[in-house]
Specification:
Strand content: 35-45%
Radius of gyration: 25 Å
Largest sheet: 9 strands, antiparallel
Distance between the termini: 60 Å
Structural class: mainly beta
Length: about 600
């Protein structure tokens, strides 16, 4: 656009320079850890000039203090006309009251200078109501920084806010990172001493241990509870933060059961583990990867779950190993470094465990899934890929077992020059939904749908969830999948795949970590096969997507997998009613509210 000025000077077109950033403050209850002394800073590639303006390397602080504060941003700027003012404005998720702006007024006649500002971010705050905390502070997510230069001729910059530049800035601020997969490595086994006492918590230092770097912001572990003296749960959370109302793992008395956990690292690079039972408990933890606060790792692309392996009826022999080529069976790209897999063992004729590890490497002393004879049980494995885009799965049982593998996403190196898609934003664990509070368990053959995620507004491509089934009336399973409705539509329930995330027996309580891809319309659906079951959903983080972009573009999708087996149902869901105030208000004030929506019964699935 142009603007009139009184003096006889040339007119310039006002545009804006945009760069993406991930802030560490989040919705209510999602506190970021304190900025450490070694948080450091990073620099973005320099910008090309436009008109008479040039903006050089932008440096920034990576972390935001938990109680809010300034995020240092600095960059050199020059203009062929005298500069009078430089303003930086952060444009991000549509949260009321969160629009950080900082500006500086320069001396008359300045042509070139280095600008140093502190972008103010308010602390996350809590509004307690019938539906729990609502986000009223800054929401974690992607932020576009508009750098506006005011001179005697007007306001100048390089493009519309939110529009990527030909050479985009690479900015990663806050508790966010890219993924570095590793072969499984054991970092904790309390059976050798250190059993966790009833209702107590212990701290496990992870940063700087087992190849995890000191500046890691999050870690991915397989955590196993064993030899429990009483039924209960385990909560894994950042050390130094309050114990959240969330769980990472549920267990029965005497049961050995694992669950994958992705958790933000807290004070001292450690995580805390709470034994939420009235008896002593042993814990085993194996690290399978970590997140770093820069672009040296890999970024995530979510998929609608697709089946990669089903050994039925051939079986995996006793003490056998099966190799899965995920590029061939699940359509992953050849550049993939790791995959998010849901691994299920079914009809085992003996007790044992599975170990998922990179093909071509030695089998590690670690486990991915534990099972008893006759049990059907699943666990998420975030698995580093070995040679041939493959993983090996070893069964320790001394009898045949069947193994089913579903792929829900993959990681590839960040070669885009900007961290706008597939970056993990970790948060302190938060309970999003508990059907026991509403008295509305999911009936068999129906889907519960979420609303208000709005990926175009919130920059969310996938949710990192811990999903727990409890009080089931029959043996069944739950599938978490992206709603198949088009952009701007309500929930449809379409898109149900021939895959599962949780398998359980009547009366059992069982959790699983789920990388839940968000549908193009912003909805995530939860399908229960038969009977009825309560469902509990806890949030541990989310993967970003560019504002205005679909979380998963069909044009960029890997090759589709083989068609589902005959008889696999498609969910049929009634249109969701408009959310009431009792259900969490508007999408802008409550992006994660998950009201139950009734649905019609579907056909049985094998």
């Amino acid at each position: 656009m142009t603007r009139d000025i009184s003096r006889n000077r040339r007119l310039r077109r006002a545009t804006a320079v945009a760069l993406t950033a991930v802030t560490g403050l989040a919705a209510a209850g999602l506190a970021a850890p304190a900025a450490s002394a070694d948080a450091g800073s990073a620099s973005a590639p320099s910008q090309q000039s436009a008109g008479g303006i040039s903006i050089g390397d932008v440096s920034f602080q990576r972390q935001v203090p938990p109680n809010g504060g300034g995020v240092p941003v600095s960059f050199p700027v020059s203009d062929s006309v005298a500069i009078s003012k430089v303003t930086v404005t952060a444009h991000g998720p549509a949260v009321p009251g969160c629009a950080p702006t900082a500006s500086t007024t320069l001396a008359d006649g300045t042509l070139s200078t280095t600008v140093s500002l502190n972008l103010p971010f308010a602390a996350a705050s809590t509004t307690d109501g019938a539906n729990g905390p609502l986000p009223t502070g800054c929401q974690a997510g992607l932020y576009a920084l508009e750098i506006a230069v005011t001179d005697a001729d007007g306001v100048h910059s390089f493009g519309a806010v939110g529009t990527p530049l030909a050479k985009p800035l690479d900015v990663s601020v806050g508790i966010a990172g890219t993924f570095v997969p590793t072969a499984p490595q054991r970092v904790l086994d309390t059976r050798s001493g250190g059993t966790l006492a009833a209702r107590s918590a212990g701290s496990l230092k992870v940063a700087g241990v087992a190849g995890v770097p000191a500046d890691a912001v999050a870690v991915v572990m397989n955590v196993t509870a064993t030899e429990a003296k009483d039924a209960g749960f385990v909560t894994v959370y950042p050390t130094g933060q309050p114990v959240p109302t969330a769980s990472s793992l549920n267990h029965a008395k005497g049961q050995t059961i694992p669950n994958a956990v992705t958790v933000q690292l807290g004070a001292g690079g450690a995580v805390s583990m709470l034994n939420g039972s009235d008896g002593n408990l042993d814990l085993v933890a194996d690290v399978v990867g970590y997140y770093v606060p820069d672009t040296t790792g890999s970024v995530y692309t979510g998929l609608s779950p697709r089946r990669a392996l089903d050994t039925r009826p051939a079986h995996v022999p006793a003490r056998g190993t099966v190799t899965v080529d995920l590029c061939t069976t699940a359509g992953l790209p050849a550049a993939a470094t790791a995959a998010a897999l849901n691994v299920t063992v079914t009809d085992p004729q003996d007790a044992g465990f599975l170990t998922v590890y990179p093909h071509g490497q030695s089998r590690p002393d670690a486990s991915s899934l534990n099972f008893t004879a006759g049990q059907t049980i699943a666990n998420t494995a975030v698995a580093r890929l070995g040679s041939g885009c493959s993983v090996d799965i070893f069964s320790s049982a001394f009898a045949p077992v069947d193994i089913v593998v579903d792929a829900s996403g993959y990681f590839v190196p960040d070669t885009s020059g900007q961290t706008t898609d597939g970056v993990l934003v970790t948060v302190a664990p938060e309970r999003l939904y508990d059907s026991r509070d509403t008295g509305s368990p999911i009936a068999g053959g129906t889907s519960m749908v979420g609303w208000g995620l709005q990926p175009r507004d919130w920059g969310i491509g996938s949710l990192l969830l811990n999903v727990t089934a409890t009080n089931p009336t029959e043996d069944s399973f739950i599938t978490v999948y992206p709603d198949g409705g088009p952009v701007d539509s309500g929930p449809t329930g379409a898109g149900l795949s021939d895959a599962s995330n949780l398998n359980f027996t009547a009366g059992q309580t069982i959790p699983n970590m789920v990388n839940a891809t968000v549908g193009a319309n912003g909805y995530v659906d939860f399908f229960n096969h038969v009977g009825s079951t309560d469902i509990v959903v806890d949030l541990f983080g989310f993967y970003t997507t560019s504002s205005g972009a679909k979380p998963f573009s069909a044009s960029a999708a890997p090759a589709a997998p083989a068609a589902p087996a005959a008889g696999a149902p498609s969910a049929k869901v009634q249109a969701a009613p408009a959310p009431s105030a009792a259900e969490g208000g508007t999408a802008a004030s409550s992006p994660f509210r998950l009201p139950f929506v009734a649905a019609t019964r579907t056909a049985a699935r094998p």
